[in-house]
Amino acid sequence: MNVLIIEDEVGLAEAVAAILRSERYQTDIANDGQTGLKMALTGEYDCILLDIMLPGMNGLDVLSYLRVKEIETPVLLLTARSETDDKIKGLDCGADDYLTKPFSMGELLARIRAMTRRRGIVQDINPKYGDITLDLKKGEIICGNSSVALGSQITTKEQFVSKIWGSNDESEYNNVEVYISFLRKKLNMLRSSVQIKTRRGIGYCLDGAK
Ligand code: CA
To answer: Mean pLDDT of all residues in the chain?
Structure first.
C-alpha cells in the first residue's frame, strides 16, 4: 500500500514514514500543501495522511481541491487538539477520519487499516499464487513447509515502470533484472511450481498456478 504523508513537521513526518515502512507500506512525504496536492493529484496513493496547518496551502484546501478533482483517495486528517472546528470542516470536505496529535503509532496504524478497509482497498497481507504465499509482514515467501526470506531490498514502482516502459538509466534497468533473478533462485530453492516469466517488451508475470 502506498501512503502519502503531507505534514510540515519534518520530524513527525519522518517518524510516521519509518513506522509505516516497518509495516511494509510504501511512503512519500510532502512538507507543504502545494507539493502534497500535486503528489496526491497523481492518484497513485491508497491513503493520504493530511495535516491541517500547512505552509502555502492548508490541509482543508488541499482536501477540497482533491475531492473537486474527483480524487477519492481515503484521507486521514492529522489535527492539533485546538482545531475542533477544522475537524468538522474536514469531515464535511470529504475526509474519512481524523486523528488528534499527539497520537500513538498503534492508533495511527489501526485508523489507516480501518479507513482503507471501509473503502474496500485490499490489504491482503498474505497474497497467494499457485503453491506460494507471500508474507509481506515477515518479508518471506512460503511454499509448503519451507520459507525463504526476501531480504530488505525493495524494488520501487519507478524501477519497474522504467523497466517496462523504457528508461535511459542502464543501472536501474540492470537492478530490476538482478532482483528478478534473486527471486527466481528463491522460488527454485523452495521447489515451487511457480515461475517468473519474462514477457519481452512488456514485463514479468507469474506462471504455474494449479
Ligand atoms: Ca502543521
So the answer is: 86
Distance CA 180, CA 164 (A): 13
Q: For ligand 1, a single-atom ion, which residues have Cβ within 5 Å? A: 8, 51, 53
- Helix or strand or coil: residue 63? helix
Distance 107 CA to ligand 1 centre (A): 19
Quote the pTM value.
Answer: 0.65
Q: What is the mean pLDDT of each run of 10 residues along the chain (210 residues)?
A: 95 95 92 97 94 94 96 93 83 93 94 88 72 82 89 63 60 74 90 89 78
Q: Which helix (H) or strand (E) holds 51?
A: strand 47-51
Nearest to residue 170, comparing CAs of 155, 156, 159? Answer: 159
Task: Name the DSSP class of 138.
Answer: T
DSSP classification of residue 129: E
Distance 163 CA to ligand 1 centre (A): 37
